[in-house]
Amino acid sequence: QVQLVESGGGLVQAGDSLRLSCAASGRTFSTYGMGWFRQAPGNEREFVAAITWSGGITYYADSVRGRFTISRDNAKNTVYLQMNSLKPEDTAVYYCAAKLTYYSGRYYTEGSEYDYWGQGTQVTVSS
Description:
The protein is mainly β. The chain has strands at 4-7, 10-13, 18-24, 32-39, 46-51, 58-60, 68-73, 78-83, 92-100, 116-117, 121-126. A hairpin with a 6-residue loop joins strand 4 (32-39) and strand 5 (46-51).
């Protein structure tokens, strides 16, 4: 069982930066691949970024590639999402998710593939 708690959301202006954090409980965090997803009002949840257990492989949605960076610190049981050059269309509730992958080098982009989810943190970008 893994519990995930996101933090770092807020209200910012277009062009600003934010860093989201997702703290995970448990001693086996390093065996989980992690992902960030987001959901805007009236929209379906969408994939944002994913990272493998070691952090060696990352993958991004086209809409955020070059602006967002996913990273993790297994010693701190935490995954991060650094968001730069924010746009109003980035406004959404951001969720982190964990998938037990052991030490596989795979990453996952479908929400249905993840085992655990956090409660979400709101990011609002004003124009």
